[in-house]
């Protein structure tokens, strides 16, 4: 069990999202950075679908009420246990009673905390993700608050030996970190200016020639109105050849829609299910984490690629994650 | 009718049956949705019908890229005549008009030079069709409101609209299933839940349903409220 001593800016339970209910207007929710989420789970021996804790910019303070194998991926928000700095992207065993804190954001915006066994909260409509506006899912349908005690399921059998091995190292100290991590190519670096790839939007042809060019040549700033629902950008105005009223249709994670003020919005995890603004592009799925890790004030550029390339990248990424997952399970066996 | 297939990002395909809402397009959207859902294709993650489009989200694998999905869906839709009709239900929604539940009813009346009673009579005498569900969980986009009771959105949206409020915006009427900010003119409130998070189908309404609004008194509203929301 985990006890929340301080809640942080926005700390929620999220998994890979609520699928199959968008036709009833129920938003997908889920993690903003699926790559970091999946890897966090893999590093504690969980299935990738298990819920993690999504931590935003200012992290919470957490007391471990039992021994706990966990991993932190995504943004580096200066995590520490009892004042000693922790390493990211690796399994860590915390002893009962130790305190996890976060400090200055070093890079990125969102950290994922996976705990071996996963967070033991009920599924609502097939998902553990928190849907704040409807007050469902996650922990009591809301962000974590001071005083909450979060139940954790038992660690999976195949990491038990590894936990025991790490536990031998923690007689004196309050935690033990694995010495290994992922290959450096598998660990993303989060810059203050990101170039993300996009495929052509369904209504890109409605924009005038200059706007189609500006969209790909200018950089856009993330405004402070950006959240889990959408990233509102500021930059060169994008305009249509002529005004047009569109019928609402489904949108996706990464859809870039442009309201009449000409400032693009990237739709994120908590997007509404449908939208009626013209979409100039869509961020490719494998580059979504780059967007999610940008903070207000930072910059983004778009680079167009073909649909075939985007889908190939997705297939390649799946392969990479499978390979990482295999080599990490092997580590668990070797180090038991 | 021709169906146009185009990508939405790299994990979805949009089937578009036209760019205007017609009887044919709505029934085609419904039958396409039903057909794809019944085919239970393993790689399909989600099907989202809208006014004139059906969007299919799928899991991309070596064997399931855009062209593969397009062909797969085309074949499914070829099998039988797609324009089969889907049965439509009629659902009665009780509404307590005016008072604290419908603070803008008088505005809607004066805006249209009608009495409050006339607005209620017009609003509750039509049969409405649910074109799609979106915007919020269980929120119906409804067609068929009389233009006699149309009213512009509020110039300043309310920060909180109580759940189950019934409103008018332009030529549209609708019911807010959950508490949301919004600019609709509120004419009443229903004690009936539209968002049912604990049911298999979490929305009272579905695209294709017919709706009729039935006026109820404040006492009836209070009794219903007592019965269904006592635990809230």
UniProtKB/TrEMBL annotation, chain A:
GO terms for molecular function: ATP binding; hydrolase activity. Residues 23-320 form the Carboxyltransferase domain. PANTHER family: 5-OXOPROLINASE SUBUNIT C. The keyword Nucleotide-binding applies. This is Biotin-dependent carboxyltransferase family protein. InterPro entries: CT_A_B, Cyclophilin-like_dom_sf, PxpC. Gene3D superfamilies: Cyclophilin-like. SUPFAM superfamilies: Cyclophilin-like. Keywords: ATP-binding, Hydrolase, Nucleotide-binding. The keyword Aminoacyl-tRNA synthetase does not apply.
Automatic annotation (TrEMBL), chain B:
Its EC number is 3.5.2.9. Residues 3-205 form the Carboxyltransferase domain. Signal peptide: none annotated. The keyword Ligase does not apply. GO terms for molecular function: 5-oxoprolinase (ATP-hydrolyzing) activity; ATP binding. Keywords: ATP-binding, Hydrolase, Nucleotide-binding. It is an enzyme of class 3 (hydrolase). InterPro entries: CT_C_D, Cyclophilin-like_dom_sf, PxpB. NCBIfam families: 5-oxoprolinase subunit PxpB (TIGR00370). This is 5-oxoprolinase subunit PxpB. It comes from Paenisporosarcina quisquiliarum. The lineage of its organism: Bacteria, Bacillati, Bacillota, Bacilli, Bacillales.
